[in-house]
Amino acid sequence: MSDPKGCLVDQVGWIPVRGVDGPKEVPLREALLDSHTFTELVPDMPTMLPVLLRQVLAPVVLDALGDVDDELWAELMDAGEFTTEQRRTISTYLDEHLARFNALDATAPFGQAAGLEHPGGKVHPVSVLMPHVATGNNTPLWDARLASDPVPLSLGAAVRWMLHAQCWDTAAIKTAAVNDPQVKAGKTTGNRTGPLGRLGVVTLLGTTLFETIVLNLPQGVRAAGDRPQWDRPPMKPSWQLRTPTGVLDLFTWQGRRLRLVADNREADEPVTVRWVVLSAGDRIDGPQPEDPHTCWTIRQDKNKGSARYPRRHLPGLMGWQGLEALLAIERDTVGYETSALLVQTATATLRGDLPSDYPLRVATCGMVYGTQDSIVSDILTDDVPLPVAALRTDHAVRGSVIRVCEQARTLARTVDHLAANLVRAVGGEPAARGKGQQPGTKLLHALDPLVRRFLTGCQRDPSDDELDQAHKAFETLAERAALAAAEELLHRLPGTAFSGRTVTKKEQGKTVTHTYQQTSAERFFHSAVRKTLTHLYPQMAAAEETAA
User: pLDDT at position 135, please?
Assistant: First the structure.
């Protein structure tokens, strides 16, 4: 029997959106049918964004409206909202599945296994679902809240974090579930991270929530038997090793068995959740399936031929530092391939179904796990403006945005080389790459707003002259920032750097002598900067081409 207090379709406000009156949490039906009136999702943390789109919003639309082809996709983007008939279809779909969207249902609670229990009635604080909150042995001694008295969450927030755990949970050993036949010594080992934990997630963002949903709808014919989790038999304590049937199954994958322990169910007060039962869930059999929310690295394997691996985001890098992968529309035998969603967006642009000045944004997120993936070490997120014109291989904007991002990285490496040569000039040895803070990293942060401003400007589909002027303006400011970074290094130098030092070492069986001086380090630095900034110093670029 369903408890009306747990109805996620109409009663519980749990989808966080931003409207004209600011942020608020709305029920599922309102979030979908009025999605054109909301500018965006405003999740608890950036890793929640793909969770809400994959686990709820996109699957409901896909399952209700049926297969999405390029024609329907274009109609949706052109209309900017669901038609009257589509609204009726989605609303009818939600009515038909109303019982399965109840978080407090007695037999099939949404996203949960009814009656799930640990031996002895053990429960976990609800904070175990939240990677940014310390729990268990990680709780600081000075924390004012004891693990035995967790902070209660609203039912809507608890459901969000439950879905977040389905996607991102760590791979730690899980406490056994009663009646799970695969339990060993009261534990379940071999658990993997949630399915998103193995990806560098790439989510497309539009100007409204409606457009964001449409941009994240994979096109194509649904695989036979592909259904979302709420259209499958209710979950039991046991779990399976299996292959996802299709995109709906993949998006709503139940990587954990969970049960929220709700308080105030009988009272007139709002339902809260302080405790949760969490155990092992389904595991994906075989390699990572074709997921539309990630880019791919393609390598040549001697035995398997061309092999594809999900491209992970790296700590310390801004989203635009992986722009080559985002723009790799055409499949390469060795290199990168962008996400399927960006491929279909590029195709829509070529057909004229999406204007070349559409203000597309790309949200990137990922998690870095530590200690055999049992803890979350870091959370990586960014939001990058992506010029739609750059998705076209025949457009000048593409080459310019790739060049600007490469110039920023090259200037950072140039500053690092300067720092290393200056350290050698005073008798020291530079730190190994990746050890300590590199001065080039500081320069990248100074260049970051310049790169983003250039990318945003390119979203207006500039003419060739405007593009050239914008690129030259970027280089002017980038050179100023690089020279300021170099001046900061030179200002700290002792006088011995001017005379420098000479080092003799063996290289490939030969004795080689290197002289490191401040003057030569500066000369190499300025030469490298001028070679990098081809719009400011075209003569240097011409000389390079002649020499080549």
Answer: 61
SS3 for 33-69 is HCHHHCCEECCCCCCHHHHHHHHHHHHHHHHHHCCEC
CA–CA gap between residue 333 and residue 190 (Å, rounded): 33
16, 42, 443 from 49: Cα distances, Å: 10, 8, 30
Q: pLDDT tens digits for 95-129?
A: 999 999 999 999 999 999 999 998 888 899 999 99
Strand order in the sheet with 335-337: 305-310, 296-301, 335-337
Distance CA 327, CA 321 (A): 12
**Structure tokens belonging to residue 545:** 């081409």
- At 547, the pLDDT band (50, 70, 90 cuts) reads low
How many Å apart are CA 195 and CA 204, to the nearest integer?
19
Query: Does residue 306 have a pLDDT over 90?
Result: no
- Digit-coded pLDDT (tens) for 36-65: 999 999 999 999 999 999 999 999 999 999
| CA distances to 420, 501, 510, 516 from 504, in Å | 17, 10, 10, 11
Please tell me the distance from the alpha carbon of residue 165 to that of residue 153, in angstroms, as a whole number.
15
Running DSSP on this structure, what letter comes out for residue 361?
A: E
The DSSP bridge pattern shows strands 283-284 and 241-242 to be parallel
Q: How many CB atoms lie within 10 A of CB 210?
A: 23
Confidence (pLDDT) at 136: 53
Question: Dihedral, CA atoms, 283, 286, 287, 293, nearest 10 degrees?
Answer: -50
pLDDT tier at 140, thresholds 50, 70, 90: very low
Q: Which residue has the tokens 């747990």?
A: 6
The Cα 467–Cα 472 span in angstroms is: 9
Contact 256, 169 (CB under 8 A): yes
E strand spans, 291-408: 296-301, 305-310, 335-337, 361-370, 375-385
- Helices marked H in 275-351 — which ranges? 323-326, 340-351
HSE (side-chain half, CA atoms, 13 Å) at 31: 30
User: In degrees rounded to 5, what are phi and psi of residue 259?
Assistant: -150, 125
What is the spatial distance between Cα 210 and Cα 22, in angstroms, rounded to a whole number?
17
Q: Convert the pLDDT of each residue in 247-272 to its tens digit.
A: 999 999 999 999 999 987 776 788 99
Q: Taking the complete model, does pTM exceed 0.85, yes or no?
A: yes
Token code pair at residue 96: 């038909």
Q: Using CA atoms, how far apart are residues 64 and 202, in angstroms rounded to an integer?
A: 24
Position 112, amino acid? Q
Yes or no: say if 485 and 446 are a contact pair by the CB < 8 Å rule. yes
pLDDT band at 363 (very low <50, low <70, confident <90, very high): very high
